[in-house]
C-alpha cells in the first residue's frame, strides 16, 4: 500500500524592522487614486498605537474605502435606480480618521498635483472677449 506524500508548504513569515513597516505592509498597496490619497493622508498621522491597531485588527485601505462608502450612503439622493452623494474631502478624511481610530482633526490634506499648462501641448482658447460684451 503506497502512501501519498503530503505537500507541506510553510507560509513565509516576513520580519519587519518596526511596527510601522508591518502596519503599512498590512494596509496593502493602493489600487486606485482614492486609496493612494488615503495612504498619503494617514502616513504622517499613524502613531505606534494606531500601527498596532492596523496590525491587530487587520485594517486595510480597501476596508477604509468601504467604510467611507458606507458612510456616504447616508448623503445619497436617489432617482430611480441611480444615486448621487456629495461628500467633501474634509468629510471623507474625517471618516478615514474614524476608521483608523485617529483622534482629533488633522490639518493636513493631501496636496493635489498642480495642473501643468506649459509647453507646446498647452490647450489654447482663441476668443474675442470684446465681442462677447457687445
Describe the structure.
The chain is mostly helical and 134 residues long. It is built from 6 helices and 2 strands. The protein has helices at residues 19-27, 33-42, 48-57, 61-72, 89-100, 129-132, and strands at residues 76-79, 82-85. Strands 1-2 form a two-stranded antiparallel ribbon. The protein is elongated and about 65 Å long. The N and C termini lie far apart (100 Å). The model is unreliable at 4-12 (pLDDT under 50).
- Taking strands numbered 1, 2, ... along the chain, how are they ordered across the largest sheet? 1-2
Mean pLDDT: 78
Distance between the termini: 100 Å
Please state the structural category. mainly alpha
Beta-strand segment tally: 2
The main sheet comes to:
2 strands, antiparallel
Report the helical percentage. 40-55%
Principal-axis shape equals elongated
Order of helical and strand elements: HHHHEEHH
What Rg do the Cα atoms give?
A: 23 Å
Low-confidence stretches: 4-12
The share of residues in extended strands comes to: 5-15%
| Number of helices, counting only DSSP H or I runs of 4 residues or more | 6
What can be said about this structure in brief?
Helix content is 43%, strand content 6%. By secondary structure, it is mostly helical.
Amino acid at each position: 500500500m503506497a502512501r501519498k506524500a503530503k505537500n507541506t508548504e510553510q507560509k513565509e513569515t516576513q520580519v519587519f524592522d518596526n511596527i510601522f513597516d508591518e502596519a503599512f505592509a498590512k494596509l496593502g498597496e493602493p489600487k486606485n487614486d482614492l486609496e493612494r490619497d488615503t495612504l498619503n493622508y494617514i502616513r504622517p498621522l499613524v502613531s505606534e498605537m494606531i500601527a498596532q491597531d492596523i496590525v491587530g485588527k487587520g485594517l486595510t485601505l480597501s476596508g477604509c474605502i468601504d467604510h467611507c462608502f458606507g458612510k456616504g450612503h447616508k448623503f445619497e439622493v436617489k432617482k430611480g435606480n441611480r444615486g448621487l452623494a456629495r461628500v467633501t474631502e474634509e468629510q471623507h478624511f474625517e471618516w478615514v480618521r474614524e476608521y483608523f481610530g485617529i483622534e482629533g482633526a488633522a490639518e493636513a490634506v493631501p496636496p493635489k498635483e498642480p495642473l501643468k499648462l506649459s509647453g507646446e501641448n498647452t490647450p489654447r482658447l482663441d476668443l474675442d472677449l470684446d465681442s462677447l460684451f457687445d
